[in-house]
Amino acid sequence: MFILTGKLSFAFLFIFLYLVNTITLAQPDFLSFDCFNDYGNYTRNSTYQRNLNTTLSRLPNTNSGFGFFNSSTGQAGSDTVHAVALCRGDVNLDACLSCLNDSIVKLREICPTQKQAIGYYDLCMLRYSNQTVLNTNKIAILLNTQNASDVDRFNEALSPLLNNVTAEASGGGSLSKFATGNTRGPGVTRIYALAQCTPDLTPQQCKQCLEGVISVFTNAYREKIGGRSLVPTCNFRL
Question: How would you write the chain as a 3-class SS string?
Answer without folding.
Answer: CCCCCHHHHHHHHHHHHHHHHHHHHCCCCCCEEECCHHHCECCCCCHHHHHHHHHHHHHHHCCCCCCEEEEEECCCCCCCEEEEEEECCCCCHHHHHHHHHHHHHHHHHHCCCECCEEEECCCEEEEEECCCCCCCCCCEEEECCCECCCHHHHHHHHHHHHHHHHHHHHCCCCCCEEEEEEEECCCCCEEEEEEEECCCCCHHHHHHHHHHHHHHHHHHCCCECCEEEEECCEEEEC
